[in-house]
Structures are given as structure tokens and as C-alpha cells.
Design brief:
With 534 residues, the protein is of the alpha+beta class. Among the domains are: 53 residues, Dihydrolipoamide Transferase; 215 residues, Chloramphenicol acetyltransferase-like domain (Chloramphenicol Acetyltransferase, 2-Layer Sandwich). It is 26% helix and 28% strand. It contains 13 helices and 30 strands. The strands form nine sheets. The chain has a six-stranded mixed sheet with strand order 21-30-29-28-24-27. Strands 1-8-6-3 form a four-stranded antiparallel sheet, covered by helices on one side. It has a four-stranded antiparallel sheet with strand order 5-4-2-7, with no helix packed on it. Strand 14 and strand 15 form a beta hairpin. Helix 11 packs across helix 12 and helix 11 crosses helix 13.
């Protein structure tokens, strides 16, 4: 029986998608995990991979064409298999009754055993909410088993490697099963929940899911085996230390507390991490804040003076795992080299003071560095580039990634077309993106597409440092603090202000002379800031 692949929902707001490129053509052999196509959504262009093996029998949406979510995208099956009935009747209803409907946000497995149990049954799998997401953590459930769910209702908040995002239901019915508890993680495509009639036999559904998986004749990879295991109900799984995060209150530095409790704690100046929760599963609620006594914390701290050795363990968050993976890949795949410079900041300091005194909106030194770098990059596309094994791409547009520290690590929002934006526009956008990043409201699209990255630790008093390249960029600029010190001007020693910057370059795409020329141009913009307005 052929596998029907529908247009996936690759973002939480996606209603239709455009096929930017097909990587396979009709007649090609497909393996699970192969990249089938690039699909352009309302937020970004993302790769879409195959979940089935066989031959590509039909392409339903050609390159450049747009189709609504769940419309026929492709068909995979056995060679010479008759698929005419699927092409002749491409409606959503007819296709969903004939085969598995699988998108990256949900998987509907309508196998015969499940259909016989209840035709209204819908199996919801862990969605892929970002292009790099491999697993997700359920931060909170907005519904509980037995609740009525309507299409469009927010089911849960899911923490990815980039942000915490709301996940809405695409179905209506009763929530009859939750497969991933609050605080637990699960692989993409593992069973997240089941929606159906309230009198459905859930045990029979789960058994049917397991049976249909075990009877599959497809050769499965180890990753597929992990996905199958996640479909099985394992009550003891929550007893493992890394899974039982919720019971420890702190999940990767996240505090489980009600919004009201957080609000009251902020108003009273209480560090919510010091409060013990008495709500369900140790959740911090209003009364915990109202009854909080800081003297208890002091006594606990004093009790540690007995000099006993101790340690604390925290499970790695999705973000921390993603950061570790990407930085390791960058450091060990791209040959880094570093170019250090020291700029005279006197003119830029004066320029900023005059600018801020003439307007209600203020700009930071970081905003000025972003603008100067963007203008320099436009003149040096060799640095504003990306390395491929078979080619080097020079970008004509300048999208500057700005590293922002958050509780669990680092994210890189992108200021797009930075060279075309005014200083005020850059300042306002950077502030907005930083706030959204720290509150985990930033979207994957707002962190996608950078051509160059800036990391600034000057506000922390760091005078000089080096960074690992944020791939697929070819370079990253590390910005230190402005330091007041004696310098030589016109043969005399005077007090001056300088700043050290370090450019890390990928030697495959940026030669030393190329990086040096970029820094020379950047120096001209920093030390003669009138050029930033031209």
C-alpha cells in the first residue's frame, strides 16, 4: 500500500507551503531520513525529510507552487504500484482514510486495528517545532485527560532547543491519553497525546499502536527503534532521575510556578528559586510566596558551614544540548583563526553622546558596532559568506546575528538587512528581540538566516575574548569592553578609551588578508562614525 505524504505543518501558524526545491524526482529510491524537499513556510524555508522507504511514485506540488497544509505533496510506494485512485481523489478526507497522514507537527496513524476501535481517533505526536529539533520537553499541559478539546485550543507548551512554543490542537474531541508528562522529554514523532471519543478503550489503542509498529517489515534504524519505544506506555520511565525532573522543581534552571506566584515574587523582590513549592508536583503557588520567610534561607546557608562535600546535578536542557552539538561541529569542522585589533573609541563615544542627547530614543555601543559591521560587510562580501564543499556563497544581503545570553545558554536573534536599517531601528529591534529571547517567546524564524554574528561581552567587563563561529557563517566578531588607559597620541601620552575586538574566521572561506581588510574598513567606521549616517 503506498504512503501518502501531505504538505506538512512546519510552523505553528503555517496554513500553506511553497515547494522551493525538490531533492528527489519521480522514480528515485527513497530511504527514511532522506531530504525530500525544501518547503517555504510563513516563517522560514525548511528541509522536509522522508519518514518512509520506497520509490517516489508521484509529486503533487511542483517547484515554485503553493499548496495548503494537508494537501497531497507526494506518494511513496513500490515500483510500478498503481496509485491512480489516490491521484484521482486527492481530497483530505479520502486520503486520510487510505493511508497514514504524517506531518512534522502531527502524525495520524489510522491503521486498521485503530479504525476498528474508533474512526474518530486521532493520535498526536511530538511535533518538530524548529528545523533542528530532535526532541521536546512538555513545559506544561493546558488540558488534562477527560477535557473536551476543540480545534485551535492550546494543548501544551513545548520546549524545543530554541524556544518554548504553544502547540495547538488540529482536532476536536476528548483528550483521552497523555503520553508525555509535564517536565518529561520525548523524541520528535513519539506519541504526545490521543484525542477521541470519551468511551474509547485507551489500552486497546496503545496495544494496537504497538502491534502495528512491531508488524512493520521496513528495515529500521536505531533512531527509528527509539521512536517505537516511545510509543509504548512505560509507567516506570518517570522514575528515572533524568525523567523525573518535575519532582525536583527545577528543570534545567526552569522554575515551575504559577504566573500569579511569579508576579507576586517579582513585586516583593523575592528570588523564586529560593521558594519551596507546595502545589501539585511541587509547583510554586501564591501561598508559597506569601508565606516565604527569607530567614529560612539564611539558616539553610549557615547549615552548610560543616564543610561537607556536595554537588548538584541538572539534566541538560534541549537548548544546552543543541548549543553543545553545534559548537562542537563548528570548532572541529571549520579551521578557525583569529585576528585581534584595538580601536580608538574617543570619536564613537562623542558621537553616541551627541546622538542620544538629540533624541528620546537611545542607542548603545552594541547598536553602533552592529551598524558599522553591517556597512563593512556590504563592502566585503567575502566575509559575509558561507562555505560548501563544492562552492563558496557570498551574500549580497547582510543579516547580523546578535548573541543574547539567556538562563539556559545562548540564542542568536537576527537583525535582517542591518546595513539598510537606521541606528534607531537597529536599537529598537535588538531590544525587542532580546526581551523575546529571554522570555522564550522568540520564534525560530527570528533566529534564522544570519550571514555574520556579533558576540559582545563588554557589558560584563570582559576586555578581550574569542568566539566559536556560529555556522553556517564564515566569521564571528567578539567585542570587548571600552577600557580607559594611557595611550600615545601625536607623540604624547594621554588618557584615552580603546576597545579590543577579535574576528574569528573560517579559513576555508576567509583568508587572512581578506579578514584584515574587513577589520580595516570596520576601524574606519568606528573611529570616524560620521560614515555610519551616510
Amino acid at each position: 500500500m503506498p504512503e501518502i505524504i501531505n504538505m506538512p505543518r512546519l510552523s505553528d501558524t503555517m496554513e500553506e507551503g511553497t515547494v522551493a526545491k525538490w531533492f528527489k524526482k519521480v522514480g528515485d529510491s527513497i530511504k527514511e531520513g532522506d531530504i525530500l524537499a525544501e518547503i517555504e513556510t510563513d516563517k522560514a524555508t525548511m528541509e522536509f525529510e522522508a519518514f518512509y522507504e520506497g520509490e517516489l511514485l508521484h509529486i503533487g506540488v511542483n517547484e515554485g507552487e503553493t499548496a495548503p497544509v494537508d494537501s497531497l505533496l507526494a506518494i511513496i510506494g513500490e515500483k510500478d504500484e498503481n496509485i491512480s485512485k489516490y491521484i484521482d481523489e486527492p481530497s483530505k478526507d479520502s486520503l486520510s482514510k487510505k493511508s497514514d497522514v504524517k506531518s512534522e507537527n502531527r502524525v495520524v496513524k489510522e491503521t486498521k486495528p485503530i479504525t476498528n476501535i474508533n474512526k474518530n481517533l486521532e493520535v498526536i505526536n511530538m511535533p518538530r517545532l524548529s528545523d533542528t529539533m530532535e526532541e521536546g520537553v512538555v513545559a506544561s499541559w493546558n488540558k488534562k485527560v477527560g477535557d473536551i478539546v476543540k480545534e485551535g485550543d492550546i494543548l501544551a507548551e513545548i520546549e524545543t532547543d530554541k524556544a518554548t512554543m504553544e502547540f495547538e490542537s488540529f482536532y476536536s474531541g476528548h483528550l483521552i491519553y497523555i503520553g508525555v508528562k509535564e517536565g518529561e522529554s520525548a523524541l520528535v514523532d513519539s506519541v504526545l497525546a490521543i484525542i477521541g471519543d470519551k468511551d474509547t478503550d485507551v489500552d486497546e489503542v496503545l496495544l494496537s499502536l504497538n502491534s502495528s509498529k512491531e508488524s512493520s517489515t521496513i528495515n529500521e534504524s536505531s533512531n527509528t527503534t527509539k521512536k517505537e519505544e516511545s510509543l509504548k506506555e512505560k509507567p516506570k520511565e518517570s522514575e528515572k532521575p533524568i525523567k523525573n525532573i518535575k519532582s525536583e522543581i527545577i528543570n534545567n534552571d526552569r522554575i515551575f510556578a504559577s504566573p500569579l506566584a511569579k508576579k507576586i515574587a517579582t513585586e516583593k523582590g523575592i528570588k523564586i528559586s529560593q521558594v519551596s513549592g507546595t502545589g501539585d508536583n511541587g509547583r510554586i503557588i501564591k501561598r508559597d510566596i506569601e508565606n516565604f520567610n527569607s530567614s529560612n534561607i539564611v539558616s539553610k546557608e549557615n547549615s552548610t558551614l560543616n564543610r561537607e562535600e556536595s554537588l548538584s546535578e541538572f539534566a541538560n536542557s534541549q537548548m544546552r544540548k543543541a548549543i553543545a552539538k553545534r559548537l562542537s561541529q563548528s570548532k572541529f569542522s571549520a579551521p578557525h583563526y583569529y585576528l585581534g585589533v584595538e580601536f580608538d573609541m574617543e570619536n564613537l563615544i562623542s558621537f553616541r553622546i551627541q546622538h542620544n542627547n538629540s533624541t528620546d530614543s537611545k542607542i548603545s555601543f552594541n547598536d553602533l558596532i552592529i551598524k558599522a559591521s553591517a556597512k563593512a560587510l556590504k563592502l566585503h562580501p567575502e566575509v559575509n559568506s558561507r562555505w560548501y564543499d563544492e562552492k563558496i556563497v557570498h551574500f549580497n544581503h547582510v543579516h547580523v546575528g546578535v548573541a543574547v545570553a539567556v538562563d539556559e545558554g545562548l540564542v542568536v536573534p537576527v537583525v535582517k538587512f542591518a546595513n539598510e536599517k537606521s541606528l534607531l531601528q537597529i536599537g529598537e529591534l535588538v531590544k525587542e528581540l532580546a526581551i523575546r529571547a529571554r522570555s522564550k517567546k522568540i520564534t525560530p524564524a527570528e533566529m534564522d538566516g544570519s550571514t555574520f554574528t556579533i558576540s559582545n561581552l563588554g557589558m560584563f567587563g570582559i576586555s578581550e575574548f574569542t568566539s566559536i563561529i556560529n555556522q553556517p557563517n564564515s566569521a564571528i566578531l567578539s567585542v570587548g569592553a571600552i577600557i580607559q588607559k594611557p595611550i600615545v597620541k601625536e607623540g604624547k601620552i594621554v588618557v584615552g578609551n580603546t576597545m579590543k575586538l577579535t574576528l574569528a574566521c573560517d579559513h576555508r572561506s576567509v583568508d587572512g588578508a581578506t579578514g584584515s581588510a574587513f577589520l580595516k574598513t570596520l576601524r574606519n567606521f568606528i573611529e570616524n562614525p560620521i560614515g555610519l549616517l551616510l
